[in-house]
Amino acid sequence: MVITRWTSRAGWAETIARAPRLELEQAGLRLSIGTSVLIALLWGQYKPGAELSHSVWFMVGFVTFALVVTLWALSYPQESPLRRILGIIADNAAVTYFMLLI
Q1: What's the CA gap between 37 and 58, in Å, rounded?
Q2: Is residue 24 within 8 Å of residue 16, measured between CB atoms?
Q3: Taking every pair of C-alpha atoms in the chain, what is the biggest distance, in angstroms?
Q4: Ramachandran area for residue 73 (φ above 0: left; ψ -120 to 50: alpha; else beta)
């Protein structure tokens, strides 16, 4: 059943075991590094009442994308060239964007 796949410990263990190892590792790195950068940006730029910079909003989008790709890899465990290509494009776009800001 689909519900127990996402709500039970055994379901998660099976889902993670079936996911393509390389894609899942890369998606996890993308998600953890992106989240860390987002937290650092928020920490450094937070001022009550101030608007958030476009770099923070870019990272919110990047982390959202990373979460979607991670869930996609878990939901559809076959290897996907499309997921890999989209991940490569997103990673390069994020690095390029922040290099342009410096």
Answers
A1: 11
A2: yes
A3: 49
A4: alpha
Closest CA to 16 of 77, 61, 60: 77
Q: pLDDT above 70 covers what percent of the chain?
A: 97
Task: Please give the Cα distance from 63 to 5 (Å, whole number).
Answer: 24
Residue-wise pLDDT tens digits, 13-37: 888 888 888 888 999 999 999 999 9
CB within 8 Å of 35: residues ≥ 6 apart = 63, 66
Structure-token match 């991940």, residue found: 87
Closest by CA position to 18, among listed 71, 67, 76, 87: 76
The pTM score is 0.84
Name the residue ranges covered by the structural domains of the chain: 20-101
